[in-house]
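Workshop exercise sheet. Pairs work together: one partner reads the sequence aloud, the other fills in the structure field after running the prediction. Swap roles for the next sheet.
Pair: D.N. / O.F.
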Amino acid sequence: MEIASKGQLRLAYLRWAVVTVPFILLLGFTSARLVPSGSENNWYRQLAKPEMLPEDWVFPVAWTLIYILLGLALAMIINARGSRLRGPALVVFAVQMGLNLLWTPLFFGAHQVVPALIVIGALLVTVLITMLLFARIRIGAALLLVPYLAWLGFAGTLLWQIHQLNPNAESLVPSHASDQIQL
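Structure field:
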């Protein structure tokens, strides 16, 4: 059994955070850059939008903050070396992160509104499970995921409204001049 001071534990956490925060940001930004999104996406511009849709600048700001919080929460859990729930928590975190990274190419690139709604539903479930596991290890890590859960609920509501306003969204074809997936 290792004995470490609070200062040593904080330093170990910070070392992990220096890795996990940029890593999560990189994953999120890479997923977002795979396809044009927001007003840069011709297909999306053609859709009828709900009145509650925020300005375009809100989305990258919100996701940047959420990814920072995810990285900090992940660092807390990685740093909890004595917990037997750490492994399962990290697996569920990875699953929810995979779903998160799938959403942008699915919606903006493949124009699949209903599957994107299903992904948001799966995200809500996996984030709740992640929060429950994180709370059993470090309550602070679970609390860092609350804004993420709230944002997913808001995003799901927006997506549902987009689906209601555009029941044929998948059939809208962007002009030939715009490629939807960038390599």
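Discussion prompt: The CA atoms of residues 66 and 148 lie 6 Å apart. What would you look at next?
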